[in-house]
Write a structure and sequence with these properties.
The protein is of the alpha/beta class and 285 residues long. The protein contains ten helices and twelve strands. The protein starts with 6 loop residues before the first strand and ends with a helix. The protein binds NADP nicotinamide-adenine-dinucleotide phosphate. NADP nicotinamide-adenine-dinucleotide phosphate binds next to helix 1, helix 4 and strand 4. Pathway: Carbohydrate biosynthesis; dTDP-L-rhamnose biosynthesis.
């Protein structure tokens, strides 16, 4: 349960998920600590230890990560350093001050060959360096932090670089954009994911949870809906490759544990996208 004045440390606080969660906590009485790479590099055990000893958080939310699939393939050591060793360092620090450790993870820990949604009991078989490094991060959290939450999400878009913003940027210069039709997922706004993180903390939940918006669609459908909401005429053409940038072709997660624990589910991907686009279009003018 989140208590008033409890101290919450968010790493990767300027990222999509970190900033969405920080915004959510704005109206609470919680004592929120926000850091990014410049303040605390999570790969540096000494920095992490010193920060935790000085600030003694009750909860550590690790929203830091290296997420680009291609970037991780090219920078494998760095991917493991941030996504796995970073999670290990924070778990060690959480253990030393009896804090709860919250790790954000991904559908990329699965190989994307399934034909039905992956739930929390499906066996992970990552194929990319990104997926392997994130799974290694999960393992560290599970084995080191005595009190932990691992929350896997998918196709996240928020305040930052993501599929929605990249597509709209491409639409400024291209008349036709090709997007995979056979890549399936559940687009999830960082805001909906932040709400789930909050609900899980409020309920004192522990363990592994999937948290994605309701329903599923192909990248192609997702792209068409984005263009429609943005009022753009750019044509979205169906592509025919299996993978887009090495992402699993079937990335649909089932929120089984949220359902079993009776925790409010995120809204549908269409509703979340409508809300995001309305706000984004206002902000972008
Ligand atoms: N985006 C998705 O589709 C998605 C889907 C499922 C799960 N996730 C997971 O959700 C988490 C957050 O993702 P996101 O989309 O919010 O990513 P993001 O926008 O790229 O944010 C990641 C943040 O981590 C920071 N960071 C990187 N290396 C660091 C280090 N060594 N020490 C401290 N901070 C560091 C980054 O800072 P810089 O900007 O300085 O690098 C950035 O602020 C990640 O763990 C990711 O694996 C993401």
């Amino acid at each position: 349960m989140l208590l008033q004045h409890e101290r919450i440390w968010i790493t990767g606080a300027q990222g999509q998920v970190g900033s969405a969660f920080a915004r959510m906590l704005d109206t609470t009485e919680l004592d929120v600590l926000l850091t990014d790479r410049d303040e605390v590099d999570i790969t540096n055990m000494d920095e992490v230890r010193a920060y935790v000893e000085m600030n003694r958080p009750d909860v550590i939310i690790n929203c830091a990560g290296i997420c680009g699939i291609a970037f991780c393939e090219e920078n494998s050591d760095l991917a493991y350093k941030v996504n796995a060793i970073g999670a290990r360092n924070l778990s060690v620090a959480a253990r030393s001050v009896h804090a709860e450790m919250v790790q954000i993870s991904t559908d990329d820990i699965f190989d994307g060959r399934a034909e039905e949604p992956y739930n929390e009991f499906s066996v992970p078989t990552p194929v990319s360096v990104y997926g392997k490094s994130k799974l290694a991060g999960e393992e560290f959290v599970k084995t080191i932090a005595p009190r932990y939450l691992i929350i896997r999400s998918s196709w996240v878009y928020g305040n930052g670089d993501n599929f929605v913003t990249r597509l709209l940027k491409s639409a400024e210069t291209q008349k036709v954009i090709r997007v995979q039709e056979n890549q399936m997922g559940s687009p999830t706004s960082a805001k909906e994911l932040a709400k789930v993180i909050y609900r899980l903390l409020e309920k004192d939940a522990y363990g592994l949870y999937h948290a994605v918006c309701g329903g599923m669609c192909s990248r192609y459908e997702f792209a068409r809906r984005i263009m429609e909401l943005a009022g753009k005429n750019t044509e979205i053409a169906a592509g025919d490759e299996d993978m887009e940038n090495g992402r699993p072709s079937y990335a649909v997660l089932d929120n089984l544990m949220l359902r079993l624990d009776g925790i409010e589910l995120p809204v549908s991907w269409e509703t979340a996208l409508d809300e995001y686009m309305k706000n984004a279009l206002k902000e972008w003018g």
